[in-house]
Structure formats: C-alpha cells, structure tokens
Specification:
Keywords: Amino-acid transport, Signal, Transport
Pfam families: Peripla_BP_6 (PF13458)
Oligomer: single chain
Protein name: Branched-chain amino acid ABC transporter substrate-binding protein
Organism: Tetragenococcus koreensis
Number of strands: 18
CATH architecture of the largest domain: 3-Layer(aba) Sandwich
Strand content: 15-25%
Radius of gyration: 20 Å
Signal peptide: 1-19
Largest sheet: 7 strands, mixed
Number of domains: 2
Structural class: alpha/beta
Order of helices and strands: HEEHEHEHEEEEHEHEHEHEHEHHHEEEEE
Strand order of the largest sheet: 10-9-11-12-13-17-18
CATH topology of the largest domain: Rossmann fold
Length: 396
C-alpha cells in the first residue's frame, strides 16, 4: 500500500497546539491543597475499573477488564509498585452514562482508589469527568476517543487522560486512507447520529476528505434494519462506504450491504474492533473492510508486543484484541506515573501522567502531549473473509 501520510501530521500538531489552555474542572491544581485527592493507604495501591461489563457495549468493557487484569497480574508478579501490590476495584457501569457517573463517585469516594481506568465509551467518560475531577483522581480511558474528553472549552481537563488516540486523528487518517490507498474520489456515509463518537468521526472525515461526499444517511444506535438507507446508497455512484459507529450496528450494516450486492470497500474507526462485529456480519461478508486500530499482531509496535501476546494467550487462551491492549497500556501508564513521581497519591499520579514521555506500550511508544493525548502510531487493519489480512502502521 502507498504511504502518503507524513505531511498531515503537521496539521495535527497545530490542531493539538491551538486547543491547549489552562486546566479545567472544579477542583484545584494538584499543588493547591496538600490534602486534595486520594492518598495511598494500607498495603495495596487501589485502582478502579469503571467499565461497561453489561449492556449494549459490554464487549468493549469485558475486553478492557481482561487487559487491566493481566497488567496487574504481571505487575504484582514483578514485585508490585513501590513495593506494594496493586488491587483492582471493579464496577460495572452497565453501558449507561448516568451509571458511569455514579460509579466514578463510588470508586473515588467509597473505595478510595488513587486512579481509575475506563469507561470505554466517550459518552460514559464525559459523564464521569465531573466526579473524578471533584475527587482529584486521575482517570485513563482506554478507548474514549471524543476530542472534547481531554480538552473542553479550550481548557485541558486536569485529571483526564487516555491511552487511545482521539477521533480527529482517526477521521483525518481515514479520509487520507480513502483517497491515497483506496483511490476513492466519491464517498458515501452511513453514520450513527446518536453518539458523540460517531458524529465527531463524521466531522473529522468530511473536513479532511479531498473527494466528494455524494450521499449521507444516518441511523440511531440500536437500529437493526438498514435496508432503506442502503438501498438509497446503492443507487448512488460511490467508491467507498464510510460507517462511523460501533460494532453492533457496523456488523449488521456490513452483512446487509454485502447481501444487497454492495461490494465497495467499507471503512470505519476503532468502534469496529470487536470480534462480535464479524459474528454479526458473517465471516464471508467481511472482506474489503478496513478500520483504524490501536494494535495489531500483524504490525507489532515494539519488542513488548510478542511477550504480551504470549502472556495474554496463556491466561485467556485467545489472541489479544485492540481493547485488551489499550487497557493493558492504561494500567502500565499509571504504574509508570507512580514510579516517576515516587508516590501513589492521586494528585501526584495525575502529574506523572501529564509528564509521561517515551513510555513503551504494546500499542506503541507513547508520549503524553499538552492536551493529555498520547502521541503514538495508528494501525489501519484490513480484513479478508473475517480475518485480519493487512495492517499498516502510520507514525505520528
């Protein structure tokens, strides 16, 4: 495949730089109050998991729980952090934004965690932000990609971080990939208009794409029948179908599109990254399908990937997914922040995360930028008959 992506990262740098600003949130800066945040107590370092373990997007949360559990197991086998074992406190937010906010409050107030991993989805993350900010406990989302999670109203959210890249980055890459690699001059869009995640991806793509958007149809999360929208799109002359949305709808869209004779490439973002997408679509229909991912065994980011894959297969008897890898990295980012600050107090951990540089993660070598986003590679994964058949790493 052609590689014409280098020039676009200059634009991304300025996009990142212009959104920087003073720290936001109702809580003060880490140094404002010596008693702020949660302090390490007892013989363990308590990290909370606020994840979608039931409900509509439980597939993401279950994978992220596995990744975090493996990371903690390895950390504790190696002597813990600062001589203390890590204890995970896991709660199910039930794929509900209100529940995610309540869970964040319970974990920070009742369980006295010093850092939090999750939620998985952007809406749930945003719902949890006020409570973790009030508690001054850092939260690292493995897969909340909405740009406004870390920067809102030109203010950096002081206690919010992520191990994934943001939507604007994915949308830009997909637009360039459609043009340069798939030679698409005309694109049709079938997008979820009910989620911040999908609408952000649509905007980023349409702002960057050099070709023509010849048709655009919408759906709402939970829809099952896409025949009417696909029939309209089929009557349009297009080269690529862009589907910004999550795996539950994406799988059905791919299935119904292929069964209707729509053979053009279908592209999407990391919301495609669940094996249930393939189950819903049917393996025979998942060819000429591409999505932006954070991790692929076909394109290892560094020397930590192979041991991670071996450890994961040994524990779970399956290949690790993108969401497994992102959560694994989130936990290890917290570990690195604690060690760099020589402290497991929550405000110190937030400072360590904000200053994290050259962290070697299984999803790539990560440096946290001034907006609390990781600078790291992206992988465009391609499928043939339901199996990953290509993976192209694109460096920032």
């Amino acid at each position: 495949m052609k590689k014409k992506f280098a020039f676009l990262f200059v634009g991304l740098f300025f996009l990142s730089a212009c959104s920087a600003g003073p720290s936001g949130g109702s809580a003060g800066a880490a140094g404002d109050n010596s008693n702020a945040g949660n302090q390490q107590e007892g013989d363990t370092i308590k990290v909370g998991l606020n994840l979608e373990l039931s409900g509509a997007v439980a597939g993401y949360g279950a994978q992220e729980e596995e990744g975090a559990e493996l990371a903690v197991e390895k950390i504790n086998e190696d002597g813990g952090i600062l001589g203390k074992d890590v204890e995970l406190v896991t709660k199910d937010n039930k794929s509900d934004n209100n529940e995610a906010a309540t869970t964040a409050a319970n974990l920070t107030t009742n369980d006295n965690i010093v850092a939090m991993i999750g939620p998985a989805t952007s809406g749930a993350v945003k719902a949890a932000i006020p409570n973790v900010t009030k508690a001054q406990v850092p939260m690292v989302t493995p897969s909340g990609t909405d740009d406004s999670i870390t920067v809102s109203n030109d203010q950096v959210q002081e206690y919010i971080f992520r191990s994934c890249f943001q939507d604007s980055f994915q949308g830009v890459i997909l637009a360039k990939y459609a043009t340069d690699n798939l030679e698409a001059e005309k694109t049709a869009i079938l997008g979820d208009n009910s989620s911040d995640y999908a609408t952000g991806l649509t905007k980023a793509f349409t702002d960057e794409y050099d070709g023509d958007i010849v048709a655009q149809e919408n759906f709402t999360k939970g829809d099952k029948d896409f025949q009417a929208a696909l029939t309209k799109l089929k009557e349009t002359d297009f080269d690529v179908l862009y589907v910004p949305g999550y795996y539950e709808e994406a799988g059905l869209i791919i299935k119904q599109a292929r069964e209707m004779g729509i053979e053009q490439p279908i592209i999407g973002a990391d919301g495609f990254g669940d094996e249930k997408m393939i189950e819903l679509a049917g393996e025979e229909n998942v060819s000429n399908v591409f999505y932006t991912g954070h991790f692929s065994a076909l394109a290892p980011a560094n020397d930590t990937v192979e041991p991670f894959i071996d450890d994961f297969k040994g524990k779970y008897d399956k290949e690790p997914s993108t969401f497994n890898a992102l959560s694994y990295d989130a936990m290890l980012m917290i570990k690195a922040a604690i060690e760099n600050e020589d402290s497991a107090d929550s405000t110190d951990i937030a400072k360590g995360l904000a200053e994290l540089q050259d962290f070697v993660g299984v999803t790539g070598n990560i440096s946290v930028d001034q907006d609390h986003n990781p600078e790291k590679p992206l992988v465009v994964v391609g499928f043939t008959d339901g199996e990953e058949s290509s993976a192209e790493t694109i460096e920032p």
